[in-house]
Amino acid sequence: MTYAIETLNLVRVFGDLVAVDNLNLKVAAGTFFGFLGPNGAGKSTTIKMLCGLLKSTSGSASILGYDIEKQAEEAKKRIGVVPEELALFDRLTGAEYLTFVGRMYGMRKEVIRTRTEELLELMALHDDRKKLIVDYSLGMKKKLTLSAALIHDPQVLFLDEPFEGIDAIASRMIKDILKSLLQRGVTIFLTSHILEIVERLCSDVAIIHKSKLIAHGTLEELQSGIALKEHAESNRTMTLEEIFINLVGTDEIHKRTLSWLE
Ligand SMILES: Nc1ncnc2c1ncn2[C@@H]1O[C@H](COP(=O)(O)OP(=O)(O)OP(=O)(O)O)[C@@H](O)[C@H]1O
Ligand SMILES: [Mg+2]
């Protein structure tokens, strides 16, 4: 089976720090995948490697069967990305930037023009079409980055905290777009600390903690796994936040309990 995203013992080291430790992930095509973890867990480092923004130290990864290093161009053609650090060109307008991105993907001029207009309209950036990106607000930059990630109709979309700094109206609109993309068979790989959003949108979830994968499965599978260990007496379904804190936060709680006992 060809997965939309597959990693095999993927590792990234920064000096003495192992930021991503032997990551093995399989994401089937058409999945809305939530990639969770506390601050500094290794989420953005993983996304950067999967998008070709950062070289892996060892291991391998593929997008729709294309190796991200050996077949980088084939892989990159098929992905769209909203990275953690937005990389826009300050001295361009939104329309100029989208045109630039469209040309980089080798799209036809008329298609770029139509899609640029539609994207600016949809993201409510149309009224600021004369404004340079340097004068954009944070949320406007995020929406423009998302527009650039969508313009070439990618099959796999990587979103690193796409809802951060976005107003409620834009957030709802983005969620609706993501749902329609999913219906078209697009695979979406999302990191977000807003667990209610992940819970509502994602069918599959992985949790990375201290650079290691500690959970990977459907939401229901995670719920049943935890229910057996910690919540055997409770019949109700746990929220993703409870699952997350259970898996990631218990370390801290145990440490505190031990220091009390000493
Ligand atoms: N370029 C870099 N040089 C050195 N260390 C780095 C670099 N990039 C990331 N790290 C380190 O790697 C670890 C993982 O960082 P990463 O950005 O992947 O975390 P994250 O899960 O995305 O966290 P957050 O939720 O805060 O965005 C952190 O300890 C971070 O300090
Ligand atoms: Mg990050």
From TrEMBL:
Keyword ATP-binding among record annotations: yes
InterPro entries reported in the protein's UniProt record = AAA+_ATPase (IPR003593), ABC_transporter-like_ATP-bd (IPR003439), ABC_transporter-like_CS (IPR017871), ABC_transporter_ATP-binding (IPR050763), P-loop_NTPase (IPR027417)
ABC transporter domain residues: 5-235
Asked whether the keyword Secreted is assigned, the reply is no
Q: Determine the domain of life of the protein's source.
A: Bacteria
Q: Which Gene3D superfamilies match?
A: P-loop containing nucleotide triphosphate hydrolases
- Molecular function (GO) terms listed? ATP binding; ATP hydrolysis activity
Key words, A-Z: ATP-binding, Nucleotide-binding, Transport
The family this protein is said to belong to: Belongs to the ABC transporter superfamily.
Q: Which named protein is this? A: Multidrug ABC transporter ATP-binding protein
Give the taxonomic lineage as stored in the record. Bacteria, Candidatus Fischeribacteriota
